Amino acid sequence: MRVKRVEKFKKHRIKRLKKLIFVTFILPFTSIFLGYIITSLVILPSMRK
Predict the structure, then answer these.
(1) How far is CA 36 from CA 4, 9, 25, 31, in A?
(2) Where are the domains of the chain?
(3) Mean pLDDT in runs of 10 for the chain (49 residues)?
(4) Euclidean distance between CA atoms 33 and 35, whole angstroms
């Protein structure tokens, strides 16, 4: 029973760590990258006209 609890909490800790990495690194990077793409492809050409 002790082994099962340890494995359960270890899996929970790994899931929480993955979610933290996603929120702190991947999500901001993708939002900045998408903003840059939208700006360079849509807004800047329309400003040029």
Answers:
(1) 47, 40, 17, 9
(2) 20-49
(3) 86 96 96 94 84
(4) 5
